[in-house]
Specification:
Length: 189
């Protein structure tokens, strides 16, 4: 029963966020839409921000667990973009509110994990320090989050699949080269 109630609250919130700005949604709006009382809402969430945190955390887990295999980093990035496109109005309502930091944090968390796993895969067979793996992954994470934020700012008009494929075609071989340079510099020390 508890999971059904949480799902009803989440679905109502997602419906509302795709209709009205985040800072205009109240707990009263959510509970009226899903048919639970305020106490039930507060039993599960301390406030609307906690509900949003859980939604983004669950989406992060879903994207990362469903898509991260050695060859599907691309799919994980595209899945994040797909979530944004499916909830375009809601994403903009959050993005243009005081909760923009939550979208930023979500993007950095997802891209951080995807890029670390991608860089680690590229480092196979090399004795790269973990510090270097993280630095290179952070470089890519920041680049991709910057591109995604630019995509959001431009109204999500470009096809994310086109952008991702093009960027990774440009990067082909460069990640391995960066890793080899890191090993070489560490060997010289």
């Amino acid at each position: 029963m508890s999971q059904l109630t949480k799902r009803a609250i989440t679905e109502s919130f997602m419906k509302l966020i795709n209709q009205v700005p985040f800072d205009k949604i109240t707990v009263k709006d959510i509970v009226e839409d899903c048919g639970v009382n305020r106490n039930t809402f507060y039993y599960h969430y301390s406030d609307i921000y906690a509900l949003l945190d859980e939604i983004l955390e669950n989406e992060t887990k879903r994207v990362l667990t469903e898509n991260l295999t050695e060859s599907s980093w691309r799919d994980a990035i595209l899945e994040s973009c797909s979530f944004a496109l499916k909830n375009k109005k809601g994403i903009y309502h959050i993005y243009n509110s005081l909760s923009r930091r939550k979208i930023d944090a979500y993007l950095y968390q997802v891209m951080g994990r995807i890029m670390y796993d991608f860089v680690k895969m590229q480092a196979e067979g090399l004795s790269v320090k973990d510090e270097d793996l993280h630095l290179i992954a952070d470089f890519y994470k920041c680049a991709f989050v910057g591109l995604i934020l630019q995509w959001l700012d431009s109204g999500m008009k470009q096809d994310p699949e086109y952008i991702v494929d093009k960027i990774f075609s440009y990067l082909e071989g460069s990640t391995r080269n960066m890793l080899e340079n890191a090993v070489e510099r560490n060997d010289r020390k």
